[in-house]
Design goal:
mainly alpha; 6 helices
């Protein structure tokens, strides 16, 4: 049974890392599920305080990730249409262009939406850059937390096999 928990935990942690870039998967929360899963093994004793604190951090980062791109977009003169366009652009970019679409998709989506929404080209470019900066900041934050959780996971798994 312990092997099943280790495999499930690994899957959750890897999905969490992927989820740092893909908006459909909540990266840090999914990585946290990997920590929670490994705590069910008979070898690992992650204390409840650690699990609760790491969960609170994961939820906080999840919420911040929803807010930061909006702040970037608004700070650079964008509208809600630009944010919706950036999200649609991210999804389309990911599926049409692949990994490179994660960066270019939100920019093109925000730019298109802002222009269609009536912003002048120059202002739409500026807003799109703000959206891109906010998106990159959110991804960096999610990836950092997911990576830290994955490292915790690997340390615990290493300790299992060394004992």
């Amino acid at each position: 049974m312990d092997q099943l928990f280790i495999i499930l935990g690994l899957i959750f942690c890897l999905l969490g890392l992927i989820g740092s870039f893909v908006p459909i998967i909540p990266g840090p929360i999914t990585s946290w599920l990997g920590l929670l899963t490994i705590s069910f093994t008979s070898y690992v004793e992650l204390n409840y305080s650690f699990l609760i604190l790491s969960f609170i951090i994961a939820v906080f980062v999840f919420i911040l990730d929803l807010i930061i791109p909006l702040i970037g977009l608004k700070k650079f003169g964008g509208t809600n249409k630009g944010m919706i366009g950036a999200t649609i652009g991210l999804l389309l970019g990911l599926f049409i262009i692949g990994p490179f679409g994660i960066l270019i998709g939100p920019f093109i989506g925000a730019l298109s939406s802002e222009i269609l929404g009536g912003l002048k080209f120059r202002k739409a470019i500026k807003a799109s850059i703000g959206s891109l900066i906010g998106f990159i900041a959110g991804v960096a934050m999610k990836f950092s937390i997911s990576l830290i959780y994955f490292i915790f996971f690997l340390i615990e798994v290493k300790n299992i096999f060394l004992t």
